[in-house]
Specification:
With 301 residues, the chain is α+β, with helices and mostly antiparallel strands. The protein has ten helices and nine strands. 44% of the residues lie in helices and 13% in strands. The model has no long low-confidence stretch (mean pLDDT 95).
Length: 301
């Protein structure tokens, strides 16, 4: 992906009414796109190629739909340029996933309060947008985890524990055989977790959700899979389900949530191929990825 020039970015942003110096912005490469962090709770997204233009166009369309139908806060589109870049108001608040994970693990009250808020948000998101609203432009499958064959081909290069690999195969077989009822297919965020929410820095109250790039019309249970953690408490998951089920009139299958959590953990482990064991890849070392996989697999089998 060609490097985006900060001076060129600043020149383009003048079209949106911003006058910034290159040292005031930060560029971050993000799969076919560039995220430009700006002062004052704003951001810009620039496509890096044709696929990036398509992804950003779908993302903007979905964010506008969410803003129109739902009460919770998502990034707001402030300007859209003809050449494909856009300017957005970010969701205000703190996004520090490791710190928030620690608070959830050690403070059950915070976990329950946050889980309750997430459950109500998902109830809105899953009920206020219909299939006809997104047909033809939103995928019918979440992009993660990768297909089972892709995982099986690469996993032996990362893990050499034959017993664990056998157990992982059993989980992948269960995942592959899963038949999702049409009634469980809704608009899912696809990657909802502590890494894609903003909270009050003092109280940890939920302020909004962002990063809908992985959204799809898929199984509602995907949006609960990252509420399962590698510590023993499940306050966040249980509070989210307790808020969600009466609000939407449908039950959540905890076994399916844990299956999706396990499949995601396995895929993250597979993604380490070629990465040194002590390197934090996607936030974890090899030992931490293996610990997550073992606990997740145990929860399924």
């Amino acid at each position: 992906m060609a490097r985006l020039n900060p001076a060129e970015v600043c020149a383009a942003l003048r079209e949106a009414g911003l006058s910034l110096r290159p040292e005031e912005i930060t560029l971050d490469a993000r799969e076919d796109r560039w995220l430009v962090r700006l002062p004052g709770d704003r951001m810009a997204w620039f496509p890096a190629n044709a696929r990036g233009r398509v992804r950003l166009a779908a993302d903007r369309r979905l964010l506008r739909l969410l803003a129109e139908r739902c009460r919770f806060r998502v990034p707001r589109i402030l300007y859209e340029a003809e050449n494909g870049f856009d300017l957005r108001a970010a969701v205000p608040g703190l996004c520090d996933p490791f710190a928030l994970y620690g608070r959830i693990a050690n403070d059950p009250a915070v976990a329950r309060r946050l889980g309750h808020a997430l459950g109500l948000i998902l109830a809105e998101q899953h009920s206020q947008i219909a299939r006809s609203d997104v047909a033809g432009w939103l995928p019918d499958r979440v992009p993660w985890p990768e297909p089972v064959d892709w995982i099986r081909e690469r996993l032996p290069e990362v893990a050499d524990d034959s017993l664990l690999l056998t157990r992982i195969d059993r989980v992948l077989d269960i995942r592959e055989a899963l038949d999702v009822p049409d009634g469980d297919r809704v608009l899912v965020h696809g990657d909802l977790g502590v890494h894609n929410i903003a909270v009050d820095p003092v109280t940890a109250d939920l302020l909004g959700v962002f990063d809908y790039d992985g959204a799809a019309w898929d199984d509602r249970h995907h949006d609960f899979r990252y509420f399962v953690f590698d510590h023993d408490r499940e306050d966040l998951l249980e509070a989210a389900i307790a808020a969600y089920e009466p609000a939407i009139g449908r039950s959540i299958d905890r076994r399916r949530v844990r299956l999706y959590n396990a499949a995601s953990a396995i895929c993250y482990l597979t993604f380490r191929r070629g990465v040194a064991s002590d390197v934090r890849h996607c936030g974890r070392t090899l030992a931490e990825d293996l610990a997550w996989v073992r606990k997740a697999v145990d929860a399924v089998l």
